[in-house]
Amino acid sequence: MDVTIYEVAKRAGVSIATVSRALRGTGPVAAKTREKVLKAVEELNFTPSRLGVSLAEGRHAANGIVFPDLAGPYYTEVLLGYEEVASELGRSVVILSTKGRTKVNDLIKDLAGRVDGLLIFGHTVPEPLVAELVRLGVRLVFISREPLPGADTLRSENTASAHALAAHLTGHGYERFAFLGAPLTSQDDVDERWQGVRSALGGAIEAVPTREYTVDCGFEAARDLLGGRNRPEAIVCSDDEVALGALLAAEQLGLDVPGDVAVTGWDDIMAARHSRPALTTVRQPMRELGARAARALDELITGVRDTPRHLILTTELVVRSSCGHHPQEVST
Amino acid sequence: MDVTIYEVAKRAGVSIATVSRALRGTGPVAAKTREKVLKAVEELNFTPSRLGVSLAEGRHAANGIVFPDLAGPYYTEVLLGYEEVASELGRSVVILSTKGRTKVNDLIKDLAGRVDGLLIFGHTVPEPLVAELVRLGVRLVFISREPLPGADTLRSENTASAHALAAHLTGHGYERFAFLGAPLTSQDDVDERWQGVRSALGGAIEAVPTREYTVDCGFEAARDLLGGRNRPEAIVCSDDEVALGALLAAEQLGLDVPGDVAVTGWDDIMAARHSRPALTTVRQPMRELGARAARALDELITGVRDTPRHLILTTELVVRSSCGHHPQEVST
DNA sequence: TTGTAAGCGTTATCAA
DNA sequence: TTGATAACGCTTACAA
User: Distance between CA atoms of A258 and A207, rounded to whole angstroms?
Assistant: First the structure.
């Protein structure tokens, strides 16, 4: 955009203040004057410079979001909910993926300088930088991490779902379990899932870590696990993608799921419904997490609320066929 | 961020011009002076305001991207490639999803005012607005649409792949085909796929439109198609998601794929490898499309290049098991 | 109801 | 080598 408020003012024969007022409705403007201004705006195809507006208003009307990687449906879904609500609230969304980046701190600081508030996933941002951001007064909302002072946190319930899942598997009669995708960091969603399942199952479950929570890593780890001497009867996975990898590994080894080994996931991504067998999993409201994050951030930014809030959304056990045979077929 | 260049200048006992020079290395600064400045910057934890910098520099150091919806892996993958390269080039990425939005034009204009250039998918933006953006000199790159003057376009090859796919299916002996997800708009990827397949198959293929290119829509349309009197032997789908829906429909109807009906997709998304049966599809380099778009935009913005360029990336037929039985099993 | 002018936080030109 | 100062494009008291 090239034409400025000065040219509009000149053309309309008024001052720039009047143009601004007429356009924003922020002060009294005579009907006839408004007419002239709007006409000039129309003719010149004027759009106020975002930079000018932001500088004067002291706000960006934009939100940031920091995620490790966009691969996989989980982050995408959250992003979708976030962008939708942000847009409703008149805010753009600036994204930043940290995976494989050097100088993450610089990137995040730059991002923080472009927006009014930040949504951050789990422990994507180094703790010292988080502290600094809080100290600088940057509005922050975290998804999937433990509460901290000075920022909102938002997460899905994990422990109770883990217990429900464990109970369901126990009901199938399984006695030897493995947790595939054992947590690498503590304090995040996966760690809670692991703790929950373990506390319900006791010593009957073994932790099997994966490099990342991806299909490929799940595949590799499951191949070793299932090919080994001590095959578990049921594999509880950290999330659906790892579980899909496990399904693949089982197939390659000629094992039937759930006949030879049961497999469960977590999240309920699209592919969980389309895999064979369909995945038993725990559904978490990914899109809603994003939507709520956008609203929370807005509250923090506008000052409607100034004390941090820590919210936990409920989840739902989705029983499909990968965990064992059920008397009457369940479908979703 | 709160501290300005003035406070740094005062603390260092120099002028703001000197601070700016010292920080950007854009003019001569005495070693001792630089020291003082850096010290003050450090102590005050100063970061130049992005708004101030952008206003003075006359550039945003940010790119925009406009997509219909982020649901599904296609857009995500492209976005991933785009953001990665943009970040390398020192540019942030501002996203805009248009699906379900009223006042799309306003949103897009706002976005255009926040960035130095825009990546736009297909026909997401109304043609008159495209023309206006071109006229205003906004740098534009399109993915998956026909070339137009004043902007770069980038797409994957479709016609030859369609012919290859058709030939492969014909090789299986099929004679009655359906194209599921028939194009609603012309001039985009899906239309090219349809035209390509049809020109190879002649009258033997029937067009079956879907409301959207999603699993659910694919499912619905496929259910009607497969449940009808005139079941095709092979269903060529507009993309993998529609194909996954078709797979689901076949299963629900008790039909074996590929025994009773063959199904093929397009794109080669993650789920295509994990479905049962695994999808025969055409792989297009989604991430590379995004990466190239970012570079193209950068060339346009920096002025390294000023004539539009229209690029077509090659694709690859990926034969798996959903299209029929193969003598020796193919895997990917 | 309208205009003048002081910010907002930088960069960069031009003198000194 | 450094410092005033004029942009950059807007919003918004404050005066008129």
Answer: 20
What are A153-182's pLDDT values in tens digits? 999 999 999 999 999 999 999 999 999 999
Q: What CATH code is carried by the domain that includes residue B22? A: 1.10.260.40
Q: Are residues B250 and B165 in the same domain?
A: yes
The boundaries of the domain holding residue A211 are: 159-285+317-331
Give yes or no: residues A201 and A136 share one domain: no
Helices (H) and strands (E) in chain B, counts: 13, 12
Distance, Å, A295 CA → C11 C1': 36
| Pair B267, B168 in one domain | yes
Nearest-nucleotide field for A57 (CA, C1'): D11
Of A69, A215, A247, the CB nearest to B270: A215
The CB density around residue A11, as the number of other CB atoms within 10 Å, is 18
Task: Report the run of H or E that residue B245 belongs to, with start and end.
Answer: helix B240-252
Establish if A47 touches chain B: CB-CB under 8 angstroms.
Answer: yes
Count: domains in chain B: 3
Identify whether residues A294 and A273 lie together within a single domain.
no
Chain D: nucleotides below 7 Å from protein CB are: 1-5, 7-13
CA–CA separation, B303 and B98 (whole Å): 29
Q: Which of residues 269-328 of A touch B (CB under 8 A)?
A: 270-271, 274-276
**For A45-100, what is each residue's pLDDT tens digit?**
999 999 999 999 999 999 999 999 888 889 999 999 999 999 999 999 999 999 99
At A153 the three-state DSSP class reads strand
Helix H or strand E encompassing A114:
none
Q: Does B52 touch chain A (CB under 8 A)?
A: yes
Same domain, B120 and B45: no
Residues of B in contact with A55 (CB under 8 A): 51-52, 55
CATH of the domain at B185: 3.40.50.2300
Q: Does the CB of A30 fall within 7 Å of any strand C atom?
A: yes
The residue in chain B having the minimum alpha-carbon distance to the alpha carbon of residue A136 is: B1
**Are the C-beta atoms of A283 and A316 separated by less than 8 Å?**
yes
Chain A residues closer than 8 Å to B3 by CB:
none
Pure H helices in chain A? 5-12, 16-24, 31-44, 50-57, 73-88, 104-112, 127-136, 159-171, 189-201, 215-227, 240-252, 270-274, 286-302
**B332 or B44, which is more confident:** B44
Residue closest to sugar C1' of D12 by CA:
A17
